[in-house]
Fold this protein.
Amino acid sequence: MSQFLYLYRMTAAARQQANSTPERAQQNMQRWMKWMAELDAKGHLKDRGQPLENTGKVVRGQKAVVDGPYTEAKDLVGGFTIVEASDIDQAVDLSYGCPIFEGGGSVEVRPVMKMDL
Amino acid sequence: MELSEHLFRRESGRLVASLTRIFGVHNLALAEDVVQDAFCRALEVWKVRGIPDNPSAWLMAVAKNRALDVVRRERTLRTFAPELARVLESEWTLAPAIEEAFASPVIRDEQLKMMFSCCHPSLPEDTQIALVLNTLCGFGASEIASAFLIGRAAMEKRISRGKKVLAGEKRLFDLSDADFGSRLSAVRRALYLLFNEGYHSASGEAAVRAELCGEAIRMTKLLLEAPSAAQPETDALAALMCLHAARLPARIDLSGDLNPLLDQDRSRWDRALVHEGLALLDRSATGAVVSGYHIEAAIAAAHATAPSVAATNWKVIVQMYDRLMDVAPSPWVPLNRAIAIAQTDGPDSGLEALHAIPDSDRLSQYPFYPAALGELELRRGNLDAARGHFSSAAALARNPVERRFLERRAGVCARE
């Protein structure tokens, strides 16, 4: 089994869509819970990961610290999760159930590099 | 940790009420923005980390923090709640004031004040109901629009018109106001109409309708928590809602088809709701006023306690409809009365009563008027006449569930 990082990328529109009414927020939440529970039940959930604030700082050296990432950026990374899968194809397959797609968001799937060769 | 049913919708009404206490009703839109922010945050954190142990407290903590930020940032630019102006100015008193606005009894009072404010006499009843559903029950405009079978844009306009009136008031309705009595009647009426919308409504989806009934009951119970509003008439209203809602599980069968009272499987009635309704009805039987709600609840109780259609005391029900005609006349009362008469005196008398309804043209668009004619003709054996009535009833049906039911009845006449 290898590890893969899911980066949740969301547009402002996706965030709006997921939360446009309390009932929709609830449904969205339920779909996430269901998807995460499925990953977990099948033994793919290595680390639930963390949600990320939408703003922070971008540092390009001591004299180049700016607010960021980029306020005008269309999709921001909203959080990450680490899954275990046999290969990238399976990791991609597992991401298909992610509710983020419903509002136009995306999941970036990145293999974690291995220390042991 | 499981997400409790309608958590966000329920919390929405409570949080908006608390935030409105801090910001003032003229900043209702700001309160709604803060709630939406809190929900966004919850969604983002919970979907990765899972649901916290106490989701309501979590949401409330986020809303409090956001309220603090907003007041600090904008207190020189905006005026907030006039009665809190002084305390919001100083850092010493700001945090305790916000803390206080989220205390349980305060949340309840603020929700009640909001409910009374939504039922402003200058607003049409359908706008009052839409406002209650939006502001207190947390339904979005599109959800209310689909429950009421009107366009989303029209519903948005209705709600925003209502909110303009609401935000134009200096403050929320004061429960010690001299107009309390008349406003309370308006609140009860709005909740009654909301319940009826759920129970009889034209909207097809059973789940939506049950939810509207549930919200009407929840709001009426909130009303009963205020000592000044907990009058016998409010008890009677709650009783009639419980007794009717008890029949909901049998009213729509498993295939989504409508089952009239006479055909319902009474074992599927919700016994707990029946008992609750009967207890409320008992409690309502004090004081000098016998309201329409009392009589309607008593009729519902007569059905709820009868083991079968045959064992129902139809004579008493006819008398109660007579009484209801005096107290709260409306076109459907003589229609139901005629059906009860048919049960005691036979279909001929029932038909006579139907034809004798003085302003039956007010029922001309109501499918259950021709449907009642059809039922009674069917019982007399006049199949052709019955089929004709059912067909005209089906043409008036307001949703697929009604249409299927009425077409099925027309089909019965053809077969026999």
